[in-house]
Design brief:
Its cofactor is FAD. This is NAD(P)/FAD-dependent oxidoreductase. It comes from Corallococcus soli. Keywords: Monooxygenase, Oxidoreductase. It is a single chain. The chain contains 13 helices and 27 strands. The protein is an alpha/beta fold. The protein folds into two domains: 294 residues, FAD/NAD(P)-binding domain; 152 residues, FAD/NAD(P)-binding domain (3-Layer(bba) Sandwich). The strands form eight sheets. Strands 1, 2, 3, 4, 5, 6, 19, 20 and 23 form a nine-stranded mixed β-sheet that branches. The protein has a five-stranded parallel β-sheet with strand order 8-17-9-10-13. The two termini are 44 Å apart.
Length: 504
């Protein structure tokens, strides 16, 4: 049988990055900086770069972390707004793409459906669909880097509500915000109490007749300045890069302090947050009914509101909060279990996201399907038994991108080690298959709990931890050795290299 012609072989790159959002763009920049000779491509299923910040179009959409830490370490955030809107974040990301020449490597309308690893070829063959034409094609790569985040881009979560069809107004999910929606002078009910809801309420209250945030359970809400005065001063006194680095270190320290304080002293943290809320709300406001969750701070993600905009909307009378359960939708709005009826022209279901591990990509290794719940995450970035595969999941208790940057650095260091020792394959392997494991994300949020049985696992033992501690990750991912007894290296067609375990 004659060998295949070059024209019959799939296009090949050293690294294939899936996703052109904040993680994928960052991964491409690190790879290009540290391995300029390696070929790579970035595949994006949608028709634009930016990921989350291009997808969501609802009023007021903004970050819930400061941009000095949500932005990249290698590119300064220079806007006065530290808590920034989607438009500014998207401009920053696309400026990064252009500045680093990543745009030449991004292929829009390319959705990855599956990827098959062959140990004999030491490469992945990736099944790709052109979403604009329906064409299917194959690409191959030495490494597959999944930077698609962890939720479904095509579908938000809406629980079942009785009587939805009876409602005569419009029901909208924030993930699918209609461009033609006119809510001026309308009565709006926003169902939810998370980051999306606390963003929507003050933004819509500026033009709506009234906005009610209807929550089943309160969330912790903490006001924060939209502008970072320290950053403004630093930019006046220092060059741009140094000012960014100093502000970033300050904000990392603040995030770490707040999270640790909440973990170690939850009662004191609860009292502090309540005090801050009371200071921003009208005298006599029922804080314990609407802003006193039954769980401890940071058991779920803490919501920040820049310049206390949510509390200002409530204080002005343009917005209100109702803490109750929905009995049913009615023709005019919502009937609550307390007997109260909320009339509305528009109901927004800010009820959360659907998680989707690895962007829904179906993986196989030597013909055997990879069942994610049977895998364990290695250093929070690879999967047991899956060669030459990395994924990017950021922090849930701090800025997402802080973790992504460290993962990308470690990934590039791993490639350097493999090149230096002539290795083509790298596979995490469990030394103890009976090792106790638990869910990948230790986070008591509804969208996480709904998807736990579809996600990889983790352990309490290194290197199978899913660390949420930035300083610990700096020591491990930036400063620590890339070599570990649980990480097996081999050369194409050869066995695992026994001396690689001892290599530096």
């Amino acid at each position: 049988m004659s060998p295949p012609r070059d024209a019959d072989l799939p296009e090949h790159v050293d690294v294939l990055i899936v996703g052109a959002g904040i993680s994928g763009i960052g991964a491409a920049c690190y790879l290009q900086r540290d391995h300029p000779s390696k070929s790579y491509a970035v595949l994006e299923a949608r028709g634009a770069t930016g990921g989350t910040w291009d997808l969501f179009r609802y009023p007021g959409i903004r970050s819930d972390s400061d941009l000095h830490t949500l932005g990249y370490e290698f590119k300064a955030w220079t806007s006065n707004k530290s808590i920034a809107g989607a438009e500014a974040i998207l401009a920053y990301l696309r400026e990064t793409v252009a500045e680093y020449g990543i745009d030449r490597r991004i292929r829009l309308h390319h959705r990855v459906h599956g990827a098959a690893w062959s140990s004999s070829d030491a490469r992945w063959v990736v099944d790709v669909e052109r979403t604009d034409t329906g064409e299917r094609k194959k690409l191959s790569c030495r490494w597959l880097f999944c930077a698609s985040g962890y939720y479904r881009y095509d579908q938000g979560f809406t629980p079942h509500f009785e009587g939805t069809a009876r409602f005569q107004g419009r029901v909208i999910h924030p993930q699918h915000w209609p461009e033609d929606l006119d809510y001026s002078g309308k009565r709006v009910v926003v169902i939810g109490s998370g980051a999306t809801a606390v963003t929507l309420v003050p933004a819509m209250a500026n033009t709506a007749a009234h906005v009610t945030m209807l929550q089943r359970t309160p969330s912790y809400v903490l006001p924060t300045p939209a502008e970072d005065l320290f950053a403004k001063l630093a930019r006046k006194l220092l060059p741009k890069k140094q000012a960014h680095a100093l502000t970033r270190r300050k904000n990392i320290a603040l995030q770490r302090f707040l999270w640790r304080f909440c973990q170690r002293f939850p009662r004191a943290a609860r009292r502090f947050i309540r005090f801050v809320n009371a200071r921003e709300l009208p005298k006599g406001y029922p804080i314990d009914e609407h802003f006193n969750p039954p769980y401890n701070p940071w058991d779920q993600r803490l919501c920040v509101v820049p310049d206390a905009d949510l509390f200002k909307a409530i204080s002005s009378g343009r917005a209100s909060v109702a803490t109750d359960h929905i009995e049913t939708f009615t023709e005019k709005g919502l009937q609550l279990k307390s007997g109260r009826e909320l009339e509305a022209d528009i109901i927004v279901t800010a009820t959360g996201l659907n998680l989707q591990a690895l962007g829904g990509i179906a993986l196989t290794v030597n013909g055997a399907p990879v069942r994610l719940p049977e895998t364990v995450a290695y250093r929070g970035m690879m999967l047991s038994g899956v060669p030459n595969f990395a994924f990017a999941v950021g922090y849930t208790n701090a800025s997402w991108t802080l973790k992504i940057g460290l993962l990308c650095e470690h990934f590039c260091r791993l490639l350097t080690h493999m090149d230096a020792h002539g290795h083509t394959t790298c596979t995490p392997e469990l030394s103890d298959p009976a090792m106790p494991t638990r869910p990948l994300l230790d986070f008591d949020a509804g969208y996480v709990k709904r998807a736990l049985d579809t996600l990889p696992r983790r352990s309490d033992e290194a290197p199978w931890l899913m660390s949420m501690d930035y300083h610990a990750d700096v020591k491990l991912l930036r400063e620590g050795s890339v070599v570990d007894p649980n990480l097996r290296f081999s050369s194409h067609g050869g066995p695992a290299s026994p001396d690689s375990v001892m290599a530096g």
